[in-house]
Amino acid sequence: xxxxxxxxxxxxxxxxxxxxxxxxxxxxxxxxxxxxxxxxxxxxxxxxxxxxxxxxxxxxxxxxxxxxxxxxxxxxxxxxxxxx
Length: 84
Fold this sequence. Notes:
Blueprint: H1 2-15, E1 20-25, E2 41-48, H2 50-54, H3 57-67, H4 69-74, E3 76-83
Parallel strand pairs: 2-3
Antiparallel strand pairs: 1-2
């Protein structure tokens, strides 16, 4: 899991200038849900970025989602994004 989170950080660093990134795994909160899968993560990304703050929230979230597009198909079930 830690290796995978480092991969996420690397993908984001290649495309976005940010000062801090915290990746929180909230998968355990969703174990009883209908479509829960042990193979997919429920993640919360907390990103501190002057660049992302300088563009609209929608544009910032679209950029992040586009960077993680393949992960969202295969490894991430849910993604919450907080930008400050």
